[in-house]
Each structure stands twice: as structure tokens, then as C-alpha cells.
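Sorry, any thoughts here?
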Amino acid sequence: MSGFDDDFIHTIDEDDNVQVIEELSEEEVAVTTNKKRKVSKKAAKKNATKEDMDNSFTFNIEGGGAYKNNTMDWDFATTREKLKAETLVPRTNIDDIIAKKLKEKKQLKNGKKRKAIEADETQEVEAVNGEGANISDNDEDLAVDGFGGGVVEDEEESENDSQDDSEAESSESESEEENQGDQNDESDDEANGEDDEEVNQFEIERKKAYFAPDSDQPEMLYESFSAMNLSRPIQKGLASVGFVAPTAIQCKTIPVALLGKDICGGAVTGSGKTAAFVVPILERLLYRPRQTATTRVLILCPTRELAVQVHSVAVKLASFTDIQFCLCVGGLSVKGQELELKQKPDVVVATPGRLIDHVRNSPSFTLESCEILVMDEADRMLEDGFADELGEIVKSCPKSRQTMLFSATMTDNVDQLIRMSLQRPVRLMIDPSNQAAAKLTQEFVRIRAHKEADRPAVLLALCKKTFKRKCIVFFRSKAAAHQMKIVFGLCGLSAAELHGNLSQEQRLEALEKFRDGEVDYLLATDLASRGLDIKGIEVVINFNMPQQFAQYLHRVGRTARAGRNGRSVTLIGEADRKLLKMAVKSSNKQQVKHRVVPAELISKYKAKLEAITEEVKDVMKQEKEDKVIRQTEMELKKSENLLQHANEIYSRPARTWFQSDKDKKKSKDVGMQAYKSMFKK
């Protein structure tokens, strides 16, 4: 100890020590404490700044966000993991059957080659230049690359060729379309007559009386979410998923929703409607009473996949709050959902059928304290197919609730909206209804009446030659989507299917594979047409034109989202002329094009399809056999459970439904008739 005498040791009595401390506390402790407080405040502020400024966060100038490994995390992996443990007998994997078939085919080809080589050892020159060599070369290409294997064509060249061909055929097609179109327009005008003006005036007066006046809508546009005076946890949640500035629908919806008013909101697909209703819900829930837990918000979605996505978005936006969520959809464990509902989560995201099941059969779960009811894709929910379920849900909710309806094709039909018991709703229609996204390029491929059988060949030609990645193909039926999945597999195209005949785990797995780029094509029915937000989709192909124009808008809305560019290609038949005119009317005519697929190319792929017809049948036969085996195993498991746990199973109360079997069948028939009526020509 420099500066001190080592021999000097100062001792102090205990009483002296106490006295010194008391003297310090009177004169200096206060000053010392203030200094310490200032230092601790500076340190805390510094640490908070470090936490807020996360170096892994980056903004995307296109309007989306990237966070943690550049992935948007409203995916389906978490939900799919829950299903794996619950699956007793795994479903048949069609990819395994296709891979097995291709392996057998390859072995057969190799065997034929060996036999040909052994037979022609003495004629080497003829074996190289003869017919056998040409066949083997083609077979090798087919095994590696599918139909048209070995042919490489740039996308730009194919598009230029198609434009040149379209100029050659434009005069003929336009003249025919104009002649038939004029006849249809004249007949429509005669049928409508002058009564339309009176009807329209009556509807205008009804809407004027039903909806809140436009003066109630705020006109202010916000440059950022911070300008909306949102709470800091909400702003941090928005930043964590890359939301930079509010969209038009968000600017108008959030202030009105925070006032507690009923809303009918409409905007084009990909405009941020989910965040438009989730953000004000989270802001209001931050100030909820916390003495007793209760479910205050219900969000309804028409499909399971959309409900999973909305739940994931809401959870991530609320990641810096203590708000609890629960997902209630079909295909997931009922018991697991019951346990979550017992905890009284603040927000329940559900599909109508499973929600009613829980309301009637889950103990201690009710909607009596529901303060906010939200319906995503409300126009679909208001259709006849959901009428009975929707009426039951509305009856279970208190009348004093706030109700918000959103859709890209939102209806303002007063008769339909009356079902929801809305109270002077504010109408927030950002874009004209029935309008496609501004940056969507729409292409149409004409299929003549006598060429309807060429649709599969046209689709294969488009996928093999031009659109090779991030493509969704929509079909009218589940069977067509499944059969084309087999064809794509045998042709060497990586594809996943999404339709109602799959288990929930398979459906979520297909979406996850397509999102992660493990497959290039998603073959889907209209199950995937509403609300799904998968970043980077380049092309949407409509194998069939849907029978309703609103459904067409939802399909093509899977691309060109959030201000990005996108393309749709639709195969148009003679019966689809009316919808084609609507599509042209609803978009910029410069972005509507006629694509021509060369006749030689169609003939080539048609021949390839005919060559694999038997292989497709073999795969489908193998799949049926595996399905029968799986069903047998499931019945065996069920019988074992009944024998082992008979007392427990029979002691449970029977699950009830709000309709009798007769009423349920009747409502199902009504929905089926409404669906079939759309396809009548």
C-alpha cells in the first residue's frame, strides 16, 4: 500500500463505527444516493436502447420486412408440430408412391438397355446410330427432366414468341369476341330494362340509412405507426415483423376501430387488412381489467389455413405484451383446445364449426363476455353455406359488442349484413369493389370448345417451358388437383397439393414446403384462394376459370401483394366469356394480355400425357390399396381403445350440436345446391 505506513494499524470501537455511519447518513448519504440513482438510470436507459436497436433487424424497401434469418414467421410449422404427436396412423404419402414408380421405371429401362447391348454386341455401329439409340436418349431425358426433358428455353424468348403469335391471331379472336359480346350485351340490356334505375335508387336509400355517414370517417393519412399514438409494445411488435408505414386500409381502420365503432372494410388483396384489425384490438386489450381472465375478442375465418395464419400474425404483433391467444380449428386436438380455453385466453381465433362445438360442449367456455367480433373474408362467411353457423355464433355473443367485417370483395348488401346485427357500421372501402391489384399482369389462354381436352397439355407446357418456380395452380375440383399432382411427379416437376381430402397435417406441410421453396408448384382448390400470404409467389395459373368473379379476384390476389409485381395466367373456355369481360373492365387494359401456346407444343405434351396414362392409374390404384390398409389399422386401434378404456369412453357426455341430424342434412343440401348452381351454364 504505497503512501501508507505498514506498521500503523488504526483500530476503532464498535460504538465509534456506529457514530461515524450516523454522521455520514445525515450529511453525505443523500448526495451519494442521488448520484447512484442517476448512474443507474443512465445504465438502464443505455441497456434499453441496446435492446430496442436489434442489429438483426432490417427494413425491406418493397414494403415487407425481414427479421431473424430473413423469414416471415407467420408459417404453419408450430401448428403442424402439434399434429405429429396426435397422429396414430400416418396417411399415405403420394410422393413415396410416385418415387417408387419412377424407381421401378428406371430399373426396367436399365434392364432393357442391358439386354439391347448384349443382343447387339456384334453391331456396335448400328446400335449407336439406329432407332434403339434414339429411344434410349429420349428415355434418359424423360427420367431426368420429365416431358420435354433436355429442352432449354429462356423465359424472355418464350414470352416474345407468344406476343408475336398473339399479334397474328388477334384480329380473328377480337372480331369473334366482339360479335358474340355485342349479342350478349343486347340481350342483357333487354332483360334488365328501365327498372334498374328504380331498384338502384332504392338500394342507395337503404344503404344511406343503414351505414354511418361518411363524415364520421377520418381523412388523415399517417406516415408511420408512431404517428397514431399507439403504445410502445405495439410499435415494437410492428417493427419486429417489418411493418414500416401503415397502408391506406390501416390508416382508415385503426382510428375508427379504437373508437369502438362497427366497421365494414374492403381493400384489394395484400393491402394489410389483417394488421388493420389486429392492431386496434391489441391496443384496446393493453388497458383491459386484469382481475379476472376472460375471453374478450373472437376472430372468425372461413378456412383452417387462414385461421392459422391470422393467429400467427397476431401472436407476433403481440410478442411484447401479455395478451394470450388460442387457436380453435378443425383437424387439431379437441382436448388440447379445451385445456387452452380453460385458461380464458384474451383472443380466440376460430373457424365456425369448431367454435360452436366448443361453445356447446367445452365446460366453462362461453362468448358472453365477448367485446369484439371480427370476421375475416366476411363475404364468404355471409354466404348461405355459413348462414346457420353464423346465426348461432351471433346469438351467443352479447349485442353490445363491436363488430368488424373485412374482405377484398366486401359486400355492402344490407340484407346480408343485417344478420350480423351491426349498429350503424362505418363503410371503409379503400378501392373500388371487384378490382384486381394495380401491379398484376393478367394473361389469358384461349381454349376453344373442341379443344377442352387439351387443358392438361397446355398446363404442362406452361409449367415446363415458362413458369418454373413459385407458382400456384388452381383447380375446380379436389380430384383434378390430386390427379395433376401425380402427373407432375411423374414428369419430374416438384409439386405439393392442397385440398380438402388431405389431413390437416398434410395441408400445413404442403404450405410450409411451398413457402420454403422445397417445391416449385402448389396445386390447390379454392381452399387456398382466400387470405393466404406467402411471400414471393410469382405466378398464379387458373386451370379453370372460377364461376364467380369475386373468387377469381381472390385467386389472382395470391400474387402482386403489398405493391409487388405479379402475373396470372387463366385458361379461358367459351363459357367464360362474361367473366373475361369483367376481368378486362376491372383492371388496366395495358396489363391484360393474350398468351398463345404453340399448337406443336400442345401436341407434344398431349402425346406425353397419353404415354403415362397407365402409370397414373397404377399410382392411384396403389394409393387406394394403402388407404384401405390405413383405414383397417385405424379401426383396429379404435377397437383396442374401446376394449382398454371402455368405462372412461362411455362415461363421457355425448357431444351435442345446435341442429338435429335432419336440419344438418337440410342445410348441407342447401349449401350443395348453391355451390352447384354456380356451375350451370
Remarks:
- The first helix runs from residue 14 to 27.
- The mean pLDDT is 77.
- The chain is about 50% helix and 10% strand.
